[in-house]
Automatic annotation (TrEMBL):
It is found in: Cytoplasm; Golgi apparatus membrane; Cytoplasmic vesicle, COPI-coated vesicle membrane. Residues 12-57 form the AP complex mu/sigma subunit domain. It comes from the Eukaryota. Oligomeric complex that consists of at least the alpha, beta, beta', gamma, delta, epsilon and zeta subunits. Belongs to the adaptor complexes small subunit family. Pfam families: Clat_adaptor_s. One of its GO terms (biological process) is intra-Golgi vesicle-mediated transport. It is a peripheral membrane protein. Gene3D superfamilies: 3.30.450.60. This is Coatomer subunit zeta.
Length: 83
């Protein structure tokens, strides 16, 4: 029996990434090979941090970051509100 390969949908989670206030990785779990090497993952994380660390917003928010397969949504929050 062949495995069914589904195309990514709006509800696909490709990665879970938590960065500290300096952009350093606290946790990262990638669920596909969009960024297969640690070097590519770190570059992607640096890109996310550079787009989000200057935000004055409180709480969480989202930002689109272009990936190899369309836009990747990113959720971020400030340490003082993430509890």
């Amino acid at each position: 029996m062949e495995a069914l390969m589904l195309e990514p949908s709006l509800y696909t989670v490709k990665a879970v990434i938590i960065l500290d206030n300096d952009g350093e990785r606290l946790f990262a779990k990638y669920y596909d090979d969009t960024y297969p090497s640690v070097k590519e993952q770190r570059a992607f994380e640096k890109n996310i941090f550079s787009k989000t660390h200057r935000s004055d917003k409180r709480g969480g928010d989202t930002a689109g970051t272009p990936g190899h397969h369309g836009d990747m949504g990113t959720l971020w929050g400030h340490r003082d509100t993430m509890g």
